[in-house]
Amino acid sequence: SQKIEQNSEALNIQEGKTATLTCNYTNYSPAYLQWYRQDPGRGPVFLLLIRENEKEKRKERLKVTFDTTLKQSLFHITASQPADSATYLCALSGGSYIPTFGRGTSLIVHP
Amino acid sequence: DGGITQSPKYLFRKEGQNVTLSCEQNLNHDAMYWYRQDPGQGLRLIYYSQIVNDFQKGDIAEGYSVSREKKESFPLTVTSAQKNPTAFYLCASSMEGRHTQYFGPGTRLTVL
Asked: Which residues between 18 and 37 in chain B have a beta carbon less than 8 angstroms from any beta carbon of chain A?
């Protein structure tokens, strides 16, 4: 069955450093991969989408890579700030347009 | 302001009662979705609708029902048949042919 793995342990980093979150998947060949941010008690908010034929995508301080050989996506936040503290979800989708979501990784940025 | 609204924000239900969660969007999106989120779990798809008057079961539809009489509205009923309904419920919508979903603020349902 399809499986998406995100680190269940929280990632703790110092302000100003680069945060790197990982999304691994198995038994799946997604055409699209998305990252969402979710704050406690709120709905997820879309951040970035990357296609299978794209290696990297950037938006301001965010960068996403998509390696279909390794079946892995890395999500980077450069110059991290305490306001970046949240849970980050990766989501994979193919032809059906309905994404499958990972459990998310909590990021805590310390001032 | 365009967006998705869900109501109520908090809902308490006694065992054996049916409750209906509201979801409205003014984004003119064709597709709408209901997810359930439990602590430490990913989002699990309950039902989705890609067009008015049509909807499909997701991965965990048992004990839930939906309707899609208007493009803007996709209410979810949690029936007494749902054995463990306490959870955070999220509604989402997307444009036709697009993968990105836009989420509402969620409804937290607690069974007393």
From this structure: 31, 33, 35
